[in-house]
Give the backbone structure.
Amino acid sequence: MTGKPAAITEADLVAYVDDRLPSERRADVEAHLARHAEDAARVAAWQQQADDLRVHFDRDLNEPVPAEMAALFAAQHPSMLGPALRIAAVLALVLLGVGAGWYGRGAFAPVDIVAALPQEATRAHLVYSREVLHPVEVTAKEEQHLVTWLSKRLGTALKVPNLSGQGFGLVGGRLLPASSGNHTAAQFMYENRQGQRLTLYVRTGEAGGDTSFRFTGEGNAVAFYWVEDGFGYALTGETGREALMPAARAVYEQLTR
């Protein structure tokens, strides 16, 4: 008689992302993910971050060994030059593969988690800013309900900045998965008369203290982002850096004062 499968733990989810589960346990995890949307969203975020890590580190690992490092090994242990460099490469690959899931759950240094903030915000912006019929879950007509609902889901009181001075009105917002805090994020969308849209992405549970006001670009989308009092914020648009700056400053000033 087949017994009931053991409960799925976070360690199982991490091992699933790292592809370290036997086939029968993997099937149990996949069945669990099919029934639990929040865990499925967490796993999807971790897998995306693992892919991002591989893209980043594969580029570095394919570069030639710096001459200074090779010379250092050769000078100290000539016979160990080849093995030492091979061991270093193997260690890097092991850390990359086994650590991918732990990176997603926040076990790496906070700077890595902060770096994921604008990436998550930009992906969400590119998906939903193009929607015509359903760009948001709750419209600006129900702003109070929107703020109450998202505050409850994120576990903290949220504020919605006013960007009317920059020519943008609130369209509404939605709930999204995230890689930090309680694995949920809020997205608020704004639009101007020309149909240009900006999105403000908000996460909670940011570790490592506050950060400075930062800028990044990914394709046509650009973002200003920062961490303040445990919140992670990213304002994203496809207007270019100079055009986005006034709105980003307005958001920053309203949320940090």
